[in-house]
Please model this.
Amino acid sequence: MKKFSFLVMIIIFVMMFPGKGQAASGHSNIYLDGTELVLATNAKIETMQNNIMIPVRVVVENLGFNVAWDKNKQSVTINNDSTVIHLVVNNKSGYVNGNKVTLPIGPALKTDTVLVPIRFVSEQLGLQVNWDNASKKIYLISSDTGSGNPGTKPEPNPDPGTEPTTPGELALINSISYSENRLMIATKGSIEPKATVMSSPNRIVIDIPYAKFSETFGTSQQLDSYLQGSFHVVGYPDLYQVRYSLYNNSPSTVRIVMDLNYAKVYTIHAEGNLLVVELKTTDPSNPGTPVGGNGKKIAVIDAGHGNQDPGAIGITGKKEKAFNLAVALKVDQLLKNEPKIEGVLTRNNDTFLELKERVKIANDLNADVFISIHANSSGSSAASGTETYYNNDRSKALANVMHKYLVRATGFKDRGVRYGNFHVIRETKMAAVLLESGYLSNKQDEAGLFTESLQNRVAQGIVDGIKEYFGLE
Ligand SMILES: [Zn+2]
Model:
């Protein structure tokens, strides 16, 4: 919301001073949300002690903040809705919301113009500042959260095994390259990447929150004024393009997208400061070949529903999508220990996929089994128990095995293996089942489904069932 009003203000200012804009001598080299600022003719930007200094009128006219100047005290007060900055000319000490801060350089007075350091002021007022050293351009990105709070910091790193990120300090992305089926992202600082497989078109999306492109990134590869770029991949049949951008500003998030020619299984791991996303080699011209050519079976695990589609709502309000995802993530973890099974999730977070997208992931991968995890609901709160659905003959054997383990895991009433005309088990081309673990409309079932112990048992049961179906020990 705030971003909107902020941009409106900029537009109004531009309209209010069209003559000045046109009369501007040249490039400001300052980009706000991708658009270069047009400065009034007499608004000169200066560099002092390696700091870019802008006249306070630029802060008002171009950045849309309020400025008050007290000539007697030689003090300048800059504010937006949430932050007040109080500075004094030639003084490195200032105040932000009443808290004392130290500036890299104090405001300067030059021929009746007060100059302030753009990075400090912008960051304090909630803009993200990126400096491209190669092109000498400054990129300001406005927050879209409305908080404008520069104190927004990463959560403490929950993993004691990794180096904690200094609060407020963003990890840096130094370079992105691709060779030998490996996407290599050189980073500095602690990162917690999130990777998601998407289809239509097939792609792998890697989000790195609390990160930004390093100042030298743009020198080695393309990065435009919107802080995005891409490169084509030549000589690899699976991947044709890699795109990257500063996707979000709150928190600052770098998004890297691998545009695939086929749905692919991948692994993601760190090698020192290198984040590696490795595509498993497959032969798309030879259906039936397991992924990796190493005899691994592919199990697509589909957590039903997601995001705006909560699925069934439990009798106390619990959402089916959360149960489905929790179990799917546990299955995925367990499958990592199975040397002969490759687990692929259709979603690994609270996102929404169309049914056909779920199907496409499995069909494009030529997966061996498709397991859709759900929980049921009924108009009658008395209905309870566990059901397993199949749609065709090729899926019956899988349904029987999976149901045996599922009923054992939930301990609920056994409602049997059933035929069902559900899209995801009808349109998938491999053995496919849909598990209705229990009834969220039933008080006992709902309570049980949201316990860690039951979810762990269901996840283990799914893995045991898959192994038995594949004849693995
Ligand atoms: Zn469901």
